[in-house]
TrEMBL record:
It holds the Pfam family DUF7121. This is Putative coiled-coil protein. Keywords: Coiled coil. Residues 12-25 have a biased composition (Basic and acidic residues). InterPro entries: DUF7121 (IPR055545). It comes from Methanoregula formicica (strain DSM 22288 / NBRC 105244 / SMSP).
Amino acid sequence: MLNDLMEKRKKTLAESEEHKNRRNELNANASKFARERNTLNNQTREFVEEAQKNKDLRDKYNQEVLDIKAQRNELNDKANVLFEDIESFKKEHGTQKNRGVKELQKQIEYMEYRQQTEVFTTDKERELIEKIKQMKGQVREQEAELEQNKEMRTKITEAREFRKQASDLHAKVTEVAELAQKHHDLMVESYRKADKSREAADAAHKSFVEAQESADSEHKFFIACQKELRDYDKVISGLRKKTKKVKVTKEQKAVRKEAESLFKNFRAGEKLTTDDILLLQRSKLI
């Protein structure tokens, strides 16, 4: 029975070691996944912060675009008022030979806008540039005629200056709008990276939870094996003590029997050796 118990204890001990090793391996994996998750979460926060910075810059530049456009429109309005006065003067004095300066200027601005924003063949673009050149020539001709009048000359100079300032602001609008678009694109890219990083962090967290749960399960099996080993140790220890006690009792009986035989011989007159006397004393017969 003792041998059977020892064999079962050996098997349980092996199972306990397997569960312990597997638990330790799973805990190590869980720690690795936790580190990956934490790194990815930090990365996600950095991407979100970067996106927010670019969003703030985009909004700032968009507001600048609105402000500059308002200034540009105000300058254009001032120029238009002056050009309307010039047109009225031309009508009153019969000097209008071609289309009005204001109308020509609008046509020029429209064609220049098309040139900047549309795609043309080389021939078509050359043709458009030539038209713009001709219209500008007509504007100069009409303005040269009007400049003979001092008052009109002053208004034309002011109107040109307003147009120039408005044109400069329009260039500024384009520049700032491009900055706003740049930061918008950077914001979108940062949010895209944040989403990707967040997905990876969620996957790492899922792996962490699975590894941790498996480690906990292996730990429970390990604890159960440890309890079983303690139970085996108690039973085996008890059996060993009992076996030892039985052995001692048998030895004591054998010694007693031998001592009684020696004592009988002693009483019959036989001589005793020193060892015989010690044996009789240990058996408490003398």
